[in-house]
Amino acid sequence: MRGAVEFRPGTPLPEREGVWWRRSLDEAGLRLRERVSAAYTVVYCTPLIAAGVILIALEPLLVPVALVSWLHAWVIPELFAHRGARVVKPLPARAGEGGGPEHAARGFLADLLGHEERALQAASGLALVRARLGVWLVGEAGALLVRPGGRRVHCFCARATDSALPRSDRIAHLLLALRQDEVGFATVANHAFAGAAWRVRRRLEPGQRPALAAARALSRLSDEHAEILDRRP
Which segment of 19-23, 118-122, 152-156 scores lowest on mean pLDDT? Predict the structure, then answer.
């Protein structure tokens, strides 16, 4: 994402021109990513699970070896989730950070959020945004997208190209880009993971987990509201 933002709601992000070959990551695109991610997990883990079962069937004394095989089947998805959760890991603080520029940037970011969202961002470092594709948690170098229902999470890596920006300005930059063009933001950002929310939660910093819980609760509420509207005659 570019260092300076001209906020024009509804206008496609100019960065989309640089990734013209990518398919737009809209609702259908996200569902496809979820299916592909689930398929990869099955492909990687099923042989390991089956190998453990076969070993025990052939020789019960091989239980320790089977357990190692099953452990690998557990660890592989965990490694994928770890890679995804890293997109919102706080970046190392720079020398002199936290002075006047950061104070001003924090005030600007607070103006973009509601009261509860400001408190959540101050505690977790993640800005909660409700949008069409789900509920986003925006950090300084990436974002999590909690899908309706709160069970699935997508992880995106994206950051401002201007490394001199204060920490809060980097978050505000991504937040404005997301509000301007949600599908474009998801398309331009590098997709790092799609999978179960509980796997991502385990890999987040402890202070970030309440933000994910809040996003999941809001996603479930939005999903229930949509179902009620669908049932109306």
Answer: 19-23
Phi-psi region of 92 (alpha: psi -120 to 50; beta: other; left: phi over 0): beta
DSSP letter (8 states) at residue 105: H
Task: Pull the structure tokens for residue 38.
Answer: 């689930």
Alpha carbon 162 to chain centroid, angstroms: 22
Q: How far is CA 83 from the centre of its chain?
A: 11
- Our CA dihedral for 20, 22, 25, 28, rounded to 10 degrees, sits at 120
- C-alpha 176, offset from chain centre: 17
Reported as half-sphere exposure (CB side, CA atoms, 13 A), residue 96 has a value of 4
Over residues 117-140, mean pLDDT: 94
How far apart are alpha carbons 43 and 50 in whole angstroms? 11
- Predicted local distance difference test score (pLDDT) of residue 230: 41
For residue 174, what are its two tokens? 């991504």
CA 215, CA 59: separation in Å to the nearest integer? 47
pTM beyond 0.85: yes
Residue 185: which residues within 8 A CB-CB, separation 6 or more? Answer: 13, 143, 156, 158, 174, 177, 178
**Nearest to 33, CA basis, from 153, 213, 183, 181:** 153
